[in-house]
Each structure stands twice: as C-alpha cells, then as structure tokens.
Amino acid sequence: MADPDQPSSSSPSPGTRRKGTIDQEREYLKLVKYTFGSGDDVRYPAFSGVMKGYNKGKYDTLEIILFARAFFEGHHELLTGFNILLPRGYSIDSVAPEMDLPEKMRDIVDSVTAMHKVKTRLQNDKPCYNSFLDLLNKFHRNLCSDQIVHKELPIIFHDYPDLIAELQIFFR
Fold it and tell me: Which tens digit of pLDDT belongs to each residue from 29-47?
C-alpha cells in the first residue's frame, strides 16, 4: 500500500527504476502538497488517489503521464518536476500532446473530488455525512441499487441541493 507522500525506490513495473532519488521524490511531493493541499482545494486528494493507484499497478505509465499533463496544466514547474516520478526512458514530453486522459482515470478524479467536496461541506453536519457514508457503503456492498441511492440522496441532502445533483451522476 504505497503512499505518494512516502515514495519508494521501486516502480510500478518490475525491473524499471524511477529517475529521481527518494529524497528528490519526497521534495517534489511536498511541493505538490504545498501547492494543492490547503483549505478546500480538492486537487491534492485526487492526485494522491491516482498516484496510489499507479503505485499499485492500476494505471500504466502512459496513463499517468496523461493524467499529470491534465492535472498540472498551468503549473509548468510541477509538470516538469513530475518526470522524477516516472521510470527511466519516460518523460512528460515523450507522449503526444493530443492524447486524452483515459475515461477511467477521469472518473476516478471526478469521484475523489466529489467525495472530498462532500466531506468538506458536511464537516459540521456529522449525521448527514454519516448517513451518506452508510448509503455509499450499502451500495458498494450491493445491498442497495442505484435506484435506491437516487431516492435516498434527496432525503439525506435535503439542505444541500447542489450536492444531490453532483452525486447523482455517479449512480447511473
């Protein structure tokens, strides 16, 4: 269970070493966290979730490069610095710019972002947040259908209509 805040010298693919040293990786990840990890900014949790998936082998190097390009758009220093996390032989510039972020990664970033938004908005409404987590848990354990989720979300989030609309797209 690799954590992007605690880089390791091993890469997701056996026999391939990363370009950066452990200290360089740590410094880079601190910079990303400093840039995106404060307040209500939901980008660092999304980045962290995708990097954990990459370290577990859920994404290949091409997908992670495409993700980094989209994620760090407008942050040239972070984008070029991302190269130290890549295996030798890869760089941000080695992938054609016209390629799109794969749908599965976009969905993950969107869902992580939505969950962080719910947690932030409901930090002072624990009963509502706990009800939502219970419903989500039932759905993931196949104890309720997406139709039930669509019925329950307006009840749980009656004071948060914007969250209802945002979350219903994940239960189609």
Answer: 999 999 887 766 677 888 8
